Amino acid sequence: MSKEREPPELERAITAKKAKKDPSDTREGLILLARLAADGNRFEHMFRYMRRLIAIVAPDGPLTLHERKVFSSSCMILLEGQRETYRYVSKAAADAASVDPLRAEAATEYLELIASDIAKICSDIVGIIDICFLPAGIGPVGSAATPEARVFYKKMKGDFLKYMAEVKDGPERDKVAQDAFMAYSSAKEDEEQLPATNPTRLELELSVALFYFDIRCLPVAAYNVAKEAVDRAIQELEAAVQTASEETGVLLGRLQSYMDVWKV
């Protein structure tokens, strides 16, 4: 006995549903979902979508420049709320230390919990970068095969190790800070292949300068890094008789603003 056929319109609907792609299975769809999550202030969802995209693409293929930036933003935004809470509670603990010991003790205990959350997020992000974008080996490999991509990911790795160091103490802080410094140093070796006005290179110089100031407490070293980056970029622009792009101009402005603070 032959099976009764579905009505034509129902068959078409079933076929269309089967042919329809789930946005979370495509690069374009995941980027759109990440943007929607960010617009709705659901940053944990934004990060989750970008992790999904990376699982689809890397390490066999590179992320585009735009995808790299969205991934970096998802990580930074996810962490920034925790860092802001850490700064607030840290100040509350310090303010209460001499006037309200019980409040100070409670704030200190809560601070340890926040620090643990920050360290976990940073560790997860560094792990993604190491596994997917900077696999072990000699020479350019994986999805960070271009100098700009390697600078981008090594700089990003250094940043999140720096954020982890900010909530550590003693030898553990020193170890994580040294790991951050090594990541930045490796990135600076690759940056020589980029123009002095390249935004990724300038972002690295800004990160290194902030590392010297925030972690090593060396404002003179921070100032020198920023000044050298600005001088190189201006010299390159003058030699080519051209004006800086909007992104380059913004970064040069940020570097110069910090120089005004660090100048002694």
TrEMBL record:
CDD domains: 14-3-3. Residues 1-21 are annotated as: Disordered. Residues 27-264 form the 14-3-3 domain. Residues 220-247 form a coiled coil. It holds the Pfam family 14-3-3. Residues 1-14 have a biased composition (Basic and acidic residues). Keywords: Coiled coil. SUPFAM superfamilies: 14-3-3 protein. Belongs to the 14-3-3 family. This is 14-3-3 domain-containing protein. The lineage of its organism: Eukaryota, Viridiplantae, Streptophyta, Embryophyta, Tracheophyta.
